[in-house]
TrEMBL record:
UniProt source species: Staphylococcus edaphicus
Pfam families: Gamma_PGA_hydro
InterPro entries: Gamma_PGA_hydro, Gamma_PGA_hydro_sf
Chaperone found in the keyword field: no
Protein name (record): Poly-gamma-glutamate hydrolase family protein
GO-annotated molecular function: hydrolase activity
Keyword annotations from UniProtKB, A to Z: Hydrolase, Membrane, Transmembrane, Transmembrane helix
Transmembrane segments: 9-31
Length: 248
């Protein structure tokens, strides 16, 4: 009888230990989902501009087209979140969409130029956003798996882009809370409709866009080093946008 009791007690204790471990892993995962990706050095674009030099530390690229309804942005381009401004430009070109990109040009530590989307107050971007019905923002997220997180307030447009990306074989998942793009203060949600879409592309996917999986400036600025995957991605996003806009 004692053997049965001790055996039962043993398995009960082991079960409790497993439950505690699983609960701990869950809480760590949930905590991570809520954490911001980084702490910005500058609290706004205005502050950044006053402390740095345009064309030396950073540059902006803005383009307006006949299609004034759609704006493609990459506010963490260049060396900040490598691959995002290059992709944004391809999408803009393919769809004949308006474009705004902010690109870090520093030889190192471009992360210092990262200003979060809710505080990015460049008047040039605000002007473009105010004239647009739809904003699609391209970002990079530090994930080692191949994933595209999609968020923002425009759920219908997000669904259309998701469908187009998945059709091309890209892995798309719902954004973690810290990059979900749902804030009304997010620049993508400051347009005429008050809603936009935010794409967060993992490091591994962005590396796969370029030869030898390199994200250095020399590689990114040479279209001969672009892989077919970056064109496929840009085409899918373009098609997703167009399919949704034709429904409205």
């Amino acid at each position: 009888m004692k053997k049965v009791f001790y055996s039962y007690l043993y398995y009960l204790i082991m079960l409790m230990i497993v439950c505690i471990i699983l609960a701990s892993l869950y809480f760590v995962y949930a905590w991570k989902q809520e954490q911001p990706q980084n702490q910005d050095y500058y609290k706004s674009f205005t502050e950044l501009k006053s402390d740095t030099k345009e064309h030396q530390d950073w540059q902006t690229n803005a383009k307006t087209t006949k299609n004034k309804d759609i704006l493609i942005t990459a506010i963490h381009g260049g060396g900040i979140e490598p691959g995002t401004s290059e992709l944004a430009k391809l999408i803009s070109k393919k769809g004949d969409f308006n474009l705004y990109s902010f690109e870090g040009l520093m030889k190192s530590n471009n992360q210092k130029l990262h200003v979060t989307s809710t505080r990015f107050d460049d008047p040039k971007l605000i002007k473009l956003t105010n004239k647009s019905n739809e904003s699609i923002s391209i970002h990079g997220v530090q994930e080692q798996k191949k994933v595209v997180y999609i968020g923002g307030k425009d759920k219908a447009m997000a669904k259309s882009i998701t469908k187009a990306l998945e059709k091309e074989g890209f892995n798309v998942e719902k954004s973690p809370n810290y990059v979900n793009g749902d804030s009304s203060k997010n620049i993508i949600n400051q347009n005429d409709t008050g809603s936009g879409v935010q794409l967060e592309i993992s490091t591994q996917y962005r590396k796969s866009f370029f030869d030898n999986k390199r994200l250095d400036r020399q590689t990114r600025e040479n279209p001969n080093d672009y892989k077919q995957s970056i064109y496929d991605f840009a085409e899918a996003v373009t098609q997703g946008i167009k399919e949704q806009t034709t429904k409205n």
